[in-house]
Hints:
The structure holds 2 protein chains of 2 kinds. By secondary structure, chain A is mainly α. Chain A has 13 helices and 2 strands, in the order H-H-H-H-H-H-E-E-H-H-H-H-H-H-H. Chain A has a single domain, classed as MetI-like fold, CATH 1.10.3720. In chain A, 74% of the residues lie in helices and 1% in strands. The two termini of chain A are 37 Å apart. Chain B is of the alpha+beta class. Chain B folds into 2 domains: 229 residues, Rossmann fold (3-Layer(aba) Sandwich), CATH 3.40.50.300; 128 residues, CATH 2.40.50.100. Chains A and B meet through helix 8 and helix 9 of A and helix 2 of B.
Amino acid sequence: xxxxxxxxxxxxxxxxxxxxxxxxxxxxxxxxxxxxxxxxxxxxxxxxxxxxxxxxxxxxxxxxxxxxxxxxxxxxxxxxxxxxxxxxxxxxxxxxxxxxxxxxxxxxxxxxxxxxxxxxxxxxxxxxxxxxxxxxxxxxxxxxxxxxxxxxxxxxxxxxxxxxxxxxxxxxxxxxxxxxxxxxxxxxxxxxxxxxxxxxxxxxxxxxxxxxxxxxxxxxxxxxxxxxxxxxxxxxxxxxxxxxxxxxxxxxxxxxxxxxxxxxxxxxxxxxxx
Amino acid sequence: xxxxxxxxxxxxxxxxxxxxxxxxxxxxxxxxxxxxxxxxxxxxxxxxxxxxxxxxxxxxxxxxxxxxxxxxxxxxxxxxxxxxxxxxxxxxxxxxxxxxxxxxxxxxxxxxxxxxxxxxxxxxxxxxxxxxxxxxxxxxxxxxxxxxxxxxxxxxxxxxxxxxxxxxxxxxxxxxxxxxxxxxxxxxxxxxxxxxxxxxxxxxxxxxxxxxxxxxxxxxxxxxxxxxxxxxxxxxxxxxxxxxxxxxxxxxxxxxxxxxxxxxxxxxxxxxxxxxxxxxxxxxxxxxxxxxxxxxxxxxxxxxxxxxxxxxxxxxxxxxxxxxxxxxxxxxxxxxxxxxxxxxxxxxxxxxxxxxxxxxxxxxxxx
Lengths: 274, 367
């Protein structure tokens, strides 16, 4: 490779790194700035103090986001895993159609998913014990509808991560387990799930990220409940993001980096052992 | 329970329009090393998977020790399988792979450990207990699969081309080890292979299969020395095929008129009579090749020809001799045989001869 081309690829690499990480660095930098405007005046922890003492609505939204993300990811991962196992190992009518429609949510614009979910929630009635569906109470928008929406759009991601893992294995290990005396349930718990673990973990982590950051779909189905991204957006709408958000973001960046490294080591360990 | 009989009767299996098995019946004896031998697509693996419980036959019956096993799921059958690609559990260590069947039952930890270590020693893997399957060589993976299949103490072990992924030298070694393990555990082995030399060297009996049918069942010697059909003769090693008509019977042998080639003497007519059209086979190593001029004995079949080609292949030489009729006979001569045939080469005029006892009628039609 010529020196010229090497320096060109170096420049592209540096450009990518700059655009990826400098904005994050700027955000962290301004979280320690005393001035509310993005002009540096003096180092200060005032925004961190405000974050922990005077921002109860932000924390409510934050914990609501975390709770919904955990619940929706767990639901999506469980259903996605079982769906992947079913599609991978069993033959059933319309299998190819089921496989094809699973990919649709991945390519569909979020705004359409959001609108369709809203229309759906507006149209159905919550079943009430002792009553038929038709006379149930209307569905109110809130944390439940956000949870359902998030679990729905995370599902295809979890499903695909597990399916990709299952594709690496020969179905003969299932036959081997059955041959060696395992019942179907024992085969599922002792062989299929442990073998697909890396896929399940990746699926869960991906779902978690998608759920935490989602704005578009959530905006349609949230009603009065706000999640983190919505609070940030509404503040900006009202005239400038408070540096309190910078402080919270800095903490979240730190947390994400730590989690990412742990997950990497964990996945590496699992990959090495199989 | 040590070893079991397997009774297979009238098994058919269709995949769509393809008939994989066309009515197979076999009786496998208690404690036998039984091989299913045939080319790929002959139905041998399908038959094994039916015994193991991974395929359901379209019709027929399979019994182990007289009990109908077809209604039972694989985990309820006293048969364990060694899979072609090993099928080890990638997330478990060697020790846990072998312990897997025991973990499913409530077995005391101490006796579990004793059993696992016993079987790991049996396959000489006790030093590798803590390793993951991904760290093992092909031969070692195979041993884990065997130990894991044996630990349930099944009465039947099903082996699906277990050595096909190994290189030639290791394959031979593992084959001898399988034979020793069979002697030690004493259970019935059903061994699927397409390699005739594997089947011949370890089996008590062999069933030769082709296109969903069993063509012949017999000991390796029977299968090799007196094949019942042309296919069996040609599949089990190399052979010479001669077509002709039985011309006369009398005295010590029958005489077959083989057209332009001349007359071939046969001792066992296998129920055919004068006038019937028959196909004969004689193994290349039964043929003697001598320089022309050496007197052939009256009792033998002998023909004059020219060496078309001679191939040196280690412990033997292969000669392709074109007879005066145009037919080419294969002759194998082992090195170390004294004298005759030494130094024969291309274009030499030779005499090919063999004992009529070594000629077999494999097929025929009433004339």
